[in-house]
Amino acid sequence: MTAQHRRRTIVAALASFTASFLLAGASPTLAEPAPAATGAPAAALAPPTFTHPGVYVSRGQLDFVRGRVQAGAQPWKAAYDQMNGHALASLSRNPKPRAVVECGPYSNPNLGCTDERQDAIAAYTNALNWYITRDQRYATKAIQIMDAWSATIRDHTNSNAPLQTAWAGVSWAKAAEIIRHTGGGWAAAGVTRFSTMLRNVYLPKVINGHATSNGNWELTMMEASIGIAVFLEDRSAYDRAVTKFRQRVPAFLYVTGDGAYAKGPVGSGIDTREEIIRYWHNQSTFVDGLSQETCRDFTHTGYGLASIANFAETTRHQGQDLYPEIGDRLRHALGFHAKYELGEAAPSWLCGGNIKRGVGPVSEVGYNALANRMGHTMANTQRLVESRRPAGTNILFVAWQTLTHANNPA
């Protein structure tokens, strides 16, 4: 190699290294491997200009829903009536903020966990109600709830803190985005304090993920992260969330192109076939659409499926459509679980023939994107979605999918 060639090689390497850490918003340290060393994809650039409202639902989607509800069209009118009749939509609801929310395994202890999650969904519910009806009382109620929490909360503690933070953070970001960017009348001081809350209390707990947990944790943490990043217009957080999402989806949903067995989560140290099988709850046969949590239960699997679709909705609104990238996995997974959720008996090779159904109200968003917008045939998913309309809420972080996404072309 000539001296000139060596100089060119060194300059190129330095340029590549500098670009990688600048895009990631991090300082270069020898302790941090370059993305190629971890198997991470290239940095995902946040949009030069963020679109608002653009967390989970766009203005076009909201306008479509408002028009359908006002016209009394189905299934949107039934979905709206379901939401509006729920206790979470009550205008007499009083928020119950806490300075420290403590959540142990399965929310035991439960010191503010249920109150926080339900208040966050209530804020989102009232935000939707505000946009659909333009009744100022609903915007005022959403603001009251958000202001109460932003004035109070300082931390989440105990073992379920990351997941609790994610569940509430998902709904807070959706509610705040609608109220702030649709003329809801939120005072500038309230917006600033809520922004500070999201940046200091929520984002640090979720943005780094949780590689060794079951996949629904990290996927919901990334859903919260991307929503918060858009609301705050934080490009670094946006890029980190997209990168981790792209890493986690293949470790949660299997397709045959992955090889003989599934991938381990990046950073988990779960690599060998034996480790993968244990991590996939002792499932040793891998087929298109199988999830890392299928043999745990369909409920937790559904949490992950919801967050995958919801995350992709947000990035699509920001001009970065990830559905073509993750759509094949999500399409297979929705159809695979819908088949058994609808009653087909599990074969002996699947979870030893013993599955725990209960996927939850989580399929409408992904179905609308993949079947209606992208044109995929999804017979099993269609049967499941249409048979369970209107989809309600799991009282954790999923709510009112039929209302917002059923056949929504926007």
Automatic annotation (TrEMBL):
Keywords: Lyase, Signal. GO terms for molecular function: lyase activity. It comes from the Bacteria. Residues 119-341 form the Alginate lyase domain. GO terms for cellular component: periplasmic space. Residues 1-31 form the signal peptide. This is Alginate lyase domain-containing protein. It comes from Crossiella cryophila. The lineage of its organism: Bacteria, Bacillati, Actinomycetota, Actinomycetes, Pseudonocardiales.
